[in-house]
Design goal:
single chain; mainly alpha; Clc chloride channel; CBS-domain; 3 domains; two-stranded antiparallel sheet; 30 helices; 8 strands; 54% helix; elongated; nucleotide-binding; voltage-gated chloride channel activity; glycoprotein; Chloride channel protein
């Protein structure tokens, strides 16, 4: 399951943005993800498990409400609820938030992560549902971890998989403060450096990803396995050699014990002290490099946050450099791998290095090394992923220290601004490399020089209200469009056409019956007024009708429909376009009536919903909504259907199943308005309809991507 590789956050981001990545929420994906991340983390690769947990939570959210799986076809439940893309997307949002909440013990941070990084379509009702889901995930994990680790079921002592512990100065050190106003200046500088380092990390990883796409992915799958083995081998060799050759044997100071005794969380002091590695060092000493390399990443982070025993600046610098390069190389290989914890550990080493330099060379004895390690972790992670609000809340909830809110927020904002000056966040880079048409939050101001007519696709593939089966099958098999406009043609000699062909007659009758006119609406209301008991109303209505000369119905409609176009050739709806047509014939006026989805057309064909030319369209069988959505979410493919039993000359009336009132825009609408409507309403198609109800083009997600808009803007400037 190749889609299970990586962190999964770019794929989930695409899914919540409205793009269906194949296989991203399959049961096979979550099984491969869970098993793969278990072994990749346990095997010592520089990867985290937080990203895969977010992906796994999203898959659970997508699959559980459906009560069915394509991998377990025999397990079927007749559960008719939540059978739409919007419901599924909401559950995926909740699942992703639950993954963050379980990973960091941060339910509010998980909710904000789903809002900031994932979901394109959000509503007020979804907020508390996602928060409740995140809270349930946090306390479920807390219940089982506390019971398994401490044997005290129901004590709730371990909120998340990654816990930073409690930041607290030693009682013996009266000068120590967690942070002061003076430190904010250093935090801002650390944010700038973190943004630069994050931009460098993203740039290197982007080049590696492009190299893999060109030279590794096209080759047999064994090459990907060999690449993963090479990374694993290199990581192991570097860890051993660096610890043996570059590590320093440092004395275990008594201050480390007194400092650790102040940690109130049960087991925290034991974790920090027990994770010290001697690694070929004499008694009463420890190897500082091995202590960072030969511990789980969470324990190494706790060492940098809470260990008073110093790490030498040389060790921290070498550790940061090696970890930076190896984690950059590792992220992108074909194993499930997260990026949060490696980035936090890398940044914590950077922050601890800054604290050591400030203490040793500038003489700032009041600073607390753990605070600088935390700020360094935030700066580097913010420079890589470019998140602000959710990452701030996640770090605050992980540290249980609200006083860190301001410095973390300032650092993350500075890191994001610095990194954005050079490139995008790591997840956006991987989304772009995949070629996914992701929509940003808003368009640039200069895009308002464009109108809907500048970006729409005028070459339409459409169907008629009454269309032959052979035409529908031909359209479905020769295109990949998800929906088709339902239209009728504007002709100058419609009466002659109505006499000649039953199919065209049905289409013209439908057009006339669906057009609302002021005269027709007034006539309808006048008829309803006759039924009132009031004689005054009835008399007024009779007088009104008596004074009005009743015109012939068809003449009135003909006048309403009369256009200043020349008559078009006799085109039957089941005929293919001719190469000899002029541009006017090829792009003739089409009255827009609605949108019909590909899945709906396939369902109508599979169930044989049609009528013969000798019959009335009323004889066509009717399908209920439950029957139309029975195959959701995987409708049959038109290429796999056996349609030999259907008569190709039979006619399908699509009008009962189309959407007669989709969102539509005028050709003169500003692009920013088009973009906001498309994104906030979660649309996939946006018809462009002119002032007289004729469809002149259609806008899809592709027409609103940044690259497409930039290209059209350049064309616009050239024409000026």
């Amino acid at each position: 399951q190749p889609v299970a590789a990586g962190s999964g956050i770019p794929e989930i981001k695409c899914y919540l943005n409205g793009v269906k990545v194949p296989g991203v929420v399959r049961l096979r994906t979550v099984v491969c993800k869970a098993m793969g991340v278990l072994f990749s983390v346990a095997g010592g690769l520089f990867v985290g498990k937080e990203g895969p947990m977010i992906h796994s939570g999203a898959v659970v959210g997508a699959g559980l409400p459906q009560f069915q799986s394509i991998s377990l076809r025999k397990i079927q439940f007749n559960f008719p609820y939540f059978r739409s893309d919007r419901d599924k997307r909401d559950f995926v949002s909740a699942g992703a938030a639950a993954g963050v909440a379980a990973a960091f013990g941060a339910p509010i941070g998980g909710t904000l992560f789903s809002l900031e990084e994932g979901s394109s379509f959000w509503n007020q009702g979804l907020t508390w549902k996602v928060l409740f889901c995140s809270m349930a995930a946090t306390f479920t994990l807390n219940f089982f971890r506390s019971g398994i680790q401490f044997g005290s079921w129901g004590s709730f002592q371990l909120p998340g998989l990654l816990n930073f512990g409690e930041f607290k100065c030693s009682e013996s050190d009266k000068k120590c403060h967690l942070w002061t106003a003076v430190d904010l200046g250093f935090f801002i500088l650390m944010g700038i450096v973190g943004g630069l380092l994050g931009a460098m990390f993203n740039c290197l990883n982007k080049r590696l990803a492009k190299y893999r796409m060109r030279n590794v992915h096209p080759k047999p799958k064994l090459v990907r396995v060999l690449e993963s083995l090479l990374v694993s081998l290199t990581t192991t060799v570097v860890v051993f050699v660096a610890s043996m050759v570059l590590g320093e044997c440092r004395q275990i100071s008594s201050t480390s014990h007194s400092g650790n005794d102040t940690l109130s969380l049960q087991g925290m002091s034991e974790d920090v002290n027990s994770s010290i590695k001697t690694f070929f060092c004499p008694n009463e000493t420890y190897n500082d490099m091995a202590t960072l390399f030969f511990n789980p990443q969470e324990s190494a982070i706790l060492q940098l946050f809470h260990q008073d025993g110093t790490f030498s600046p040389v060790t921290l610098s070498l550790f940061f450099l090696l970890y930076f390069l190896l984690s950059c190389w590792t992220y992108g290989i074909s194993v499930p791998s997260g990026l949060f914890v490696p980035s936090l550990l890398c940044g914590a080493a950077f922050g601890r290095l800054v604290a050591n330099l400030l203490k040793s060379y500038i003489g700032l004895d009041h600073i607390y090394s753990g605070t600088f390690a935390l700020i360094g972790a935030a700066a580097f992670l913010g420079g890589v992923v470019r998140m602000t609000i959710s990452l701030t809340v996640i770090l605050i909830e992980s540290t249980n220290e609200i006083t860190y809110g301001l410095p973390i927020m300032i650092t993350l904002m500075v890191a994001k601004w610095t990194g954005d000056f050079f490139n995008k966040g790591i997840y956006d880079i991987h989304v772009n490399l995949r070629g996914v048409p992701l929509l940003e939050w808003e368009t640039e101001v200069e895009m308002d020089k464009l109108r809907a007519s500048d970006i729409m696709e005028p070459n339409l593939t459409y169907v008629y209200p009454h269309t032959r089966i052979q035409s529908l099958v031909s359209i479905l098999r020769t295109t990949v469009h998800h929906a088709f406009p339902v239209v009728t043609e504007n002709r100058g000699n419609e009466r002659e056409f109505m006499k000649g062909n039953q199919l065209i007659s049905n289409n013209i009758k439908f057009k006339k019956s669906s057009i609302l006119t002021r005269a027709g609406e007034q006539r309808k209301r006048s008829q309803s007024m006759k039924s009132y008991p009031s004689s005054e109303l009835r008399n007024m209505c009779d007088e009104h009708i008596a004074t009005e000369e009743p015109p012939e119905k068809e003449d009135l409609l003909q006048q309403m429909l009369e256009r200043r176009y020349t008559p078009y050739p006799n085109l039957y709806p089941d005929q293919s376009p001719s190469e000899e047509w002029t541009m006017e014939e090829r792009f003739r006026p089409l009255t827009f009536h609605g949108l019909i989805l590909r899945s709906q057309l396939v369902t109508l064909l599979v169930r044989g919903v049609c009528y013969s030319e000798s019959q009335s369209s009323a004889s066509q069988p009717r399908l209920s909504h439950a029957e139309m959505s029975e195959d959701y979410p995987r409708y049959p493919d038109i290429h796999d259907l056996d349609l030999t039993l259907l008569n190709p000359r039979m006619i399908v009336d699509v009008t009962p199943y189309m959407n007669p009132s989709p969102f539509a825009v005028s050709p003169n609408t500003h692009v920013s308005q088009v973009f906001n409507l498309f994104r906030t309403m979660g649309l996939r198609h946006l018809p462009v309809v002119n002032a007289v109800g004729e469809i002149v083009g259609i806008i899809t997600r592709h027409n609103l991507t940044h690259e497409f808009l930039q290209a059209r803007l350049r064309q616009h400037y050239q024409t000026i």
